Amino acid sequence: MTLVSRTAPTTSALLFLNDFDWKILFAKFNPNKKIPKRPPTMKQITTWIAQLGGFLARKGDGEPGVTHIWRGLKKLADMIEGAQLIRNICG
């Protein structure tokens, strides 16, 4: 994920996340926006995932590291599981 986001940043997020997963991530970081039809880029989802893991994404911070991405992926997995449970209960 880190390599792809750095070497091919405009690649579609569908390379790593399915449709349901990227929409949850988008909604987390854009709470007042309508979910777009096209998925975000790899660079954008990598930054969002790293932010879930504690990366601050300030102008001078550079690219997120593996630790922030790993922590963010664990949090994203919990968010996805919660959303699936709600979807199963509420329909």
Classification by helices and strands: mainly alpha
Q: Report the principal-axis shape.
A: globular
Strand content: under 5%
Task: Kindly state the percentage of residues in helix.
Answer: 55-70%
Biggest sheet architecture: none
So what's the CATH class? Mainly Alpha
Order of helices and strands: HHHH
CATH homologous superfamily heading: Transferase Inhibitor Protein From Tn5, Chain
The averaged pLDDT comes out at 97
- Identify low-pLDDT runs: none
Q: Give the N-terminus to C-terminus distance in angstroms.
A: 32 Å
* Strand elements, count: 0
Number of domains: 1
Number of helices: 4
**What is the name of the CATH architecture?**
Orthogonal Bundle
CATH topology tier name: Transferase Inhibitor Protein From Tn5, Chain A, domain2
Draw up the topology in text:
Blueprint lengths: L1 H6 L11 H11 L12 H11 L13 H25 L1
Describe this structure in words.
The chain has 91 residues and is mainly α. It has one domain (2-90): Transferase Inhibitor Protein From Tn5, Chain (Transferase Inhibitor Protein From Tn5, Chain A, domain2, Orthogonal Bundle). Helices cover 58% and strands 0% of the residues. It contains four helices and no strands. Helix 3 (42-52) crosses helix 4 (66-90). It is globular, with a radius of gyration of 13 Å. The mean pLDDT is 97.
What are the salient characteristics of this protein?
91 residues; mainly alpha; Transferase Inhibitor Protein From Tn5, Chain A, domain2; 0% strand; globular
